[in-house]
Design a protein that fits this description.
The chain has helices at residues 12-23, 27-40, 56-67, 84-92, 105-116, 129-137, 139-143, 155-166, 181-201, 219-230, 242-250, 258-261, 282-285, 305-309, and strands spanning 4-5, 47-52, 71-76, 96-98, 122-125, 149-152, 174-176, 211-215, 234-238, 254-255, 267-270, 293-296. The protein is α/β, with parallel strands linked by helices. The chain has two domains: 4-179, Rossmann fold (3-Layer(aba) Sandwich); 189-309, Rossmann fold. Helix 10 (219-230) links the parallel strand 8 (211-215) and strand 9 (234-238). Helix 5 (105-116) packs across helix 6. The longest helix is centred in the middle third of the chain and has 21 residues, at 181-201. It starts with a strand and ends with a helix. It binds nicotinamide-adenine-dinucleotide. Residues 154-156, 184, 188, 192, 215-221, 238-241, 244, 271-274, 277, 297-299 line the site of nicotinamide-adenine-dinucleotide.
Length: 310
């Protein structure tokens, strides 16, 4: 029996189309590994719970795990990234999904708990919320060895676990897949950089000639800077790490403190993983141009003032 709570089951055929598009662009996950899994069933009897962006790509990962014999339980790692059609298609294919677009904080944790109630053996996280909830509310799964291993997909999640480890509070074996070079050098730098630009493009905003302030020059933010410059924007980088700031300078960007960058900004994008990069203070808010576009790619919505003001 498939367990689920999603927005609308009738969206499944639209979700199938999305899955098909992604399937053809993920030949390793949906071709080589899935074929091997179908033959060898290495995950037979294993329950896997994922707190992930419920997108067409994650959906294909879930189907590959299922092909390997696993029972898969999914919830969304960000209420705004869940694609309801994809969730519906997954349920039809036998994946247990607890996710819908725009769920509240309370519903977000309800979905995580529904997955953990199934006593999963492996957790795949994006942001650390599922694994931390397991530590706090389902400690028996860790103490009695039900959970045999966990995996974390994003920088902010890895940092949260590093902090837990320092305090001796991390009780599970954790694979920080975010730190794999293929992840942070390609997905973070190139994929997410393109993703945020595509989102703003969807608002029919011309980048050419605009002043685009990029906060941070790490993996994701350097990718955003590259893409914005490629579209003809005048890119200004702000960084708190002097070596990263120097890297940005040598890559040809203007680099300056945020207070100096804000007055000319048409678009401001944050991807630092830090709190309150842009704050609703008089010094910052009054400097902004009317109509400036503010975007955040960091994992949590704590980086800039729109979220703080909401
Ligand atoms: N949306 C996505 O698809 C996606 C994908 C990957 C990572 N992320 C998230 O993006 C964020 C950044 O990840 P990353 O891998 O690029 O991290 P990173 O550590 O490589 O880069 C962050 C950079 O921001 C700088 N920084 C910190 N505070 C700053 C401040 N106040 N002002 C200016 N610069 C500052 C740091 O010095 C660092 O160079 C994390 O929250 C991560 O979880 C999101």
């Amino acid at each position: 029996m498939v367990n689920f709570k999603i927005a609308d089951e009738s969206l499944a055929s639209k979700g199938d189309e999305a899955l098909y598009v992604a399937e053809n662009k993920m030949p390793v996950t949906t071709g080589i590994i899935r074929k091997r899994f179908e033959e060898e069933k290495p995950l037979k009897g294993v329950k896997i719970a994922g707190c992930l962006h419920i997108t067409k790509e994650t959906a294909n990962l879930a189907l590959t795990l299922q092909a390997g014999g696993a029972d898969v339980y999914l919830c969304g790692s960000n209420p705004l990234s869940t694609q309801d059609d994809v969730a519906a298609a997954l349920v039809k294919k036998g994946i247990n999904v607890f996710a819908w677009h725009g769920n509240t904080d309370e519903e977000f944790y309800w979905c995580i708990r529904e997955c953990l109630k199934e006593s999963p053996n492996i957790l795949i996280d994006d942001g650390a919320d599922m694994i931390i909830t397991a530590h706090k509310e389902f400690p028996e799964l860790i103490e009695n060895g039900t959970i045999i291993g966990c995996q974390e997909e994003t920088t902010t999640g890895v940092k949260r676990f590093q902090a837990m480890e320092k305090q001796g509070k991390l009780k599970v074996a954790l694979f920080p897949v975010n730190d794999a070079r293929c992840k942070n050098q390609f997905d973070n730098e190139l994929g997410t950089g393109q993703g945020i630009i595509a989102a703003i493009y969807g608002m029919h905003v011309l980048f050419a000639g605009k002043v685009c302030v990029i906060c941070g020059y790490g993996h994701c933010s350097s990718g955003m800077a590259l893409r914005a410059r490629g579209l003809g924007a005048n890119v200004i980088v702000t960084e708190i790490d002097p070596i990263k700031a120097l890297q940005a300078k040598f890559a040809g960007y203007q680099v300056m403190p945020i207070a100096e960058a804000l007055p000319s900004a048409d678009i401001i994008l944050t991807a630092t993983g830090c709190k309150h990069v842009i704050t609703p203070t008089k010094e910052m808010f009054d400097k902004l141009k009317e109509g400036v576009i503010l975007g955040n790619l960091g994992h949590f919505d704590i980086e800039n003032l729109t979220q703080i003001l909401c």
